[in-house]
Amino acid sequence: MQTQAVIQWPAEAIWEQIVPLLPGFTIEILPEIGSTNTELMRRAKEGKLEPILLVAEKQTAGRGRLGRDWIALTDRVDNALPMLTFSLGMPLSPISWSGLSLAIGVSLASSLDPRIRLKWPNDLWLNERKLAGILIETTVINDQRFAVIGIGINILQAQPFSTSALRTAPAWLHEINTQAQAANTLAQVIAPLISTIQLFETQGFAPFQKTFNALDALHNRTVLIQNNAVSKTGSEQLQGLTQGLAQGVDDAGALIVLTESGRQLVSSSEVSIKPI
Q1: Distance between alpha carbon 213 and the CA centroid of its chain, in Å?
Q2: Binning pLDDT at 50, 70 and 90, where does residue 38 land?
């Protein structure tokens, strides 16, 4: 029976790097938990609003966008974690919440590799496959807004692994960086991520628009907008499936789609690439 190696997380180094940016910051690493987002939301509702980074070596009840389950890879590969999963919780009062997941995507892609692309509104893609996902939740406690930002990054492929339950086939960071491990990837992304969030808090999405559009996986692609989309061209909810050509995002992070009825700015929806 193979003994599992202890993951050497650079917790102290991360804390020393982050605490000047976030006074009161703590970092906690757990061997297993249901969901890091759920746990931080629970703590926030108990009044624990200090900034915290919660890392889980294994999640058993991870969650994705629109209430979907997050299918986490749990079996170690050669004593290495196949996935990095963590949640960052912090008080946050941005001038606007629009585009926060896009700004976070820009930060992660910029930290990891220039070949990574961004799929509006919350996924990182590598070679048309999903490398990472972002889930943002907020709550208000005593008139203070607390944000929980959950991130999952595929590091290396676990075998055997079936993709039949996935909407998009997975990609792995090892495809472009064979030295990547969960611990060193966390150290690589966390400080730029916090700096990004703080810049977003004061300036909104506009500083990130140009970079997002340069990394946009949907640019000039035909997309289908599902019926839960909300168009910024009016207060009406789009009905049924709307097809159009994706043309990047505006300075608030809304997806620009050219449709038969004209230009639509989609601020909330489920967008899928139409098979050609």
Answers
A1: 17
A2: very high
